[in-house]
Amino acid sequence: MLVVGFYFFSQSDYHVHRNQHNALPEGILRPVGEQLYEDDVQRLWILEPQIKNTFHQPDTPAGPIQDPYPNVEGGLEFDPETPNWKFLSETKEGGSSYEAILQPDGSYLTAGPKQGTYNYGHPIGLWGMIKHVVLDAIPHFFNGNYGE
Predict the structure, then answer these.
(1) pLDDT classification of 148: cutoffs 50, 70, 90
(2) How much is the CA Rg of the chain, to the nearest whole Å?
């Protein structure tokens, strides 16, 4: 019964159109603390470790990049096997977060099943992780297609 519930939730507008709530960093990301960055509109973004970014990596290694991540001050380590970086920003309301997947060319991945998506559960702390798994991760495995 639970599987059926997740299936129907994954087909709902709530899931499919979640990115109408998402936001991306604006301008340059500047480090302001350990794993913490601020964009040009003073929104704070947490740089997630690559272990939490597995589902957002390309299927094949990236080619050489002359100037990777030009919109991140101080730069990020470029690894052709895991070239994309995940940034999260908790919403003002709290409990949810914006998600941005930065590609080496400085653009954000905004299409396809590996794109960053609005998180109904901000994955910080035990309750946040539970909400994230139930509201964001599991439904994605049933339906990774997102509308505009």
Answers:
(1) low
(2) 15
**What pLDDT does residue 15 have?**
75
How many Cβ atoms are within 10 Å of 147's Cβ, its own excluded?
10
For the stretch 72-85, pLDDT in tens is 999 899 999 999 99
Our measurement of the distance from residue 66's CA atom to the centroid of its chain's CA atoms, rounded to an integer in Å, reads 24
pLDDT for 90 beyond 90? yes
Amino acid at 135: L
Alpha carbon of 7 to those of 13, 16, 32, 62: distances in Å? Answer: 13, 12, 40, 33
- Tokens standing for residue 14: 């709530």
- Sign, Cα dihedral of 112, 122, 43, 77: negative
Please name every residue paired with 38 in a beta bridge, in sequence order, or none if there are none.
Answer: 30, 44
DSSP letter string, 117-147? --BSS---HHHHHHHHIIIIIHHHHH-----
Amino acid at 55: F
pTM: 0.91
